[in-house]
Amino acid sequence: MSPNSAPPTSSRAEALAKAGALAQLDKMAGGHYTLGESTPSSPAPSAAFVIMRYDIRERLAEPDGQAACHIDAPVPLGTGAEFVGHVTGEIRLRNLGHSVVARGRLRATAVLPCSRCLREHEAVMQFDVSEDCTLTQMDEPGSYVPDAEYQEPAPIPILDGNIVDLSELVRQLLVLSLPARSLCSPDCRGLCPECGANLNLTTCDCQREATDPRFAPLADLLQTRER
Ligand SMILES: [Zn+2]
Ligand SMILES: [Zn+2]
Fold first, then answer.
1. Which one of the ligands is nearest to 185 CA?
2. Which residue in 53, 93, 128, 204 has its CB near the most CB atoms, within 10 A?
3. 3-state SS, residue 2
């Protein structure tokens, strides 16, 4: 199978490059991000770093072969965000000959700052997966760390001949699905633009004077007419 050389789209590549740098940092910081089997001398990975591996290569080997992977595992490191609980769902892989298509649905809960008041809150992410992938044999799985030059479609590593590891694919999908804006509640009142008070918790004197900037032209008009 030839490596894919499609040029990445810029925004997607940027998002992934940012998270990729974080994954690299995680690895350097001693996180169990590497996908290699632990050697007898290395400590066994803790339960918090269970990796998403599936023994499905045989089922995928034939053209049109397919396999379903049930996902219920801790969120891979290097997403650039904090998560609570597991990432869950299902990814079905199907061998189309020239590529492998991954389809399914994933669910995870991120801890994000509110876009209005900055309060951290849990945001449930649920999204469909539809990705063209390639399978890439990793002779040295430990060296599999995403770098700045992302391949697209995302390569799915095959370890030890038969084991397919979905953690990098899942990590990329989570990064790409993180919402740019998230509110702690739909009616969050945000921070006072004048004094910074959290208007969900308190009121302030400047609050009454503050006007929505969109109404400024209207206020000007009223003042003009009063004169
Ligand atoms: Zn808020
Ligand atoms: Zn204020």
1. 1
2. 93
3. coil
CA of 217 from ligand 2 middle (Å) equals 22
Measured CA to CA, the distance from residue 183 to residue 222 in angstroms comes to: 34
DSSP class per residue in 82-116:
EEEEEEEEEEEEEE-SS-EEEEEEEEEEEEEE-TT
Q: What DSSP character marks residue 210?
A: -
**Ion ligand 1 contact residues with beta carbon within 5 A:** 114, 116-117, 184, 188
227: tokens are 């004169």
Give the separation between CA 79 and CA 7, rounded to whole angstroms.
Answer: 22
The ligand placed nearest to the CA atom of residue 184 is 1
Q: How far is the CA of 120 from the centre of ligand 1 (A)?
A: 8
Q: 212 C-alpha to center of ligand 2: Å?
A: 13
**Interval 203-219: pLDDT, tens:** 998 855 545 666 666 65
**Per residue in 177-205, pLDDT tens?**
999 999 999 999 999 999 999 999 999 98
Q: 202 CA distance to ligand 2 centroid (A)?
A: 9
